[in-house]
Amino acid sequence: MAGIRKTVVWCAALVAAASLARVAQAGDVKGKVKAQDMRSAENIVVYIDSIPGKTFPPPVQHAVVDQIQMEFVPHVLVIVKGTTVNFLNDDPVPHNVYWPAINHDRKLAHNMGTWPEGIVKSFRFDTLGDVPLLCKVHSEMAGFIVVVPTPYFAITDKAGNYTIKDVPPGEYVLKTWSEEAKPAVQAVTIQYGAETGSQPASNCSACSQAKQEAIVDLIVKK
Predict the structure, then answer these.
(1) Deepest of 115, 116, 203, 219, by most Cβ within 10 A of its Cβ?
(2) pLDDT digits (tens, 9 = 90+) for 103-126
(3) How high is the pLDDT of residue 218?
(4) Does one domain contain both 102 and 34?
């Protein structure tokens, strides 16, 4: 009986160590986006185009676009394909939400209607690409939803910095989206180890050292 217990404990330890190694095998992609001839490097979307052999179900929790002080908040929302977005109105005036196209396809135009403060309307986005948000009541209002194929994405800050966390090892294509600039494309590689390129050993010390940072600076142009 004691021998069986030892075997069970040993197997559990191996499983736990393997789980730690799998977590540690992910890496971060970070860098800075330089925006040429643009007003700002903020709100540029950077994302991994695909992970071969993997599909990503949409999150159960809905994303949110609010309307506050005559603005869409956030100005740019990034979601995984299939995500449902709740559209809110927190202004004391009626607002409308519509988009003239999805990924430049005008056949996918849609008008959510006009509703007063406190009402929520929802829509599921199943087409990849950008969705320009407009309001028929207030022509100055504009925002964007960007539908991407993987959950590995980030939005740049005011300085153009971005970080995509916990990307699994592999060779990928990094892409950008901006409301002003043309898309940029860059290859990126996440390895198992920071230097050796080999799979880390299954212990906590190796796990803590295995996470790699891939630095990728990008230039986007109008």
Answers:
(1) 115
(2) 999 999 999 999 999 999 999 999
(3) 93
(4) no
Q: Which of 164, 166, 135 is nearest to 148 (CA)?
A: 164
114 and 66 inside one domain: yes
pLDDT exceeds cutoff 60 at 76: yes
Domain that residue 136 falls in = 57-148
CATH number at 77 reads: 2.60.40.420
Please tell me whether residues 66 and 143 are part of one structural domain. yes
Whole-structure pTM value: 0.82
Whether residues 106 and 177 fall in one domain: no
Q: Is the pLDDT of residue 208 over 50?
A: no
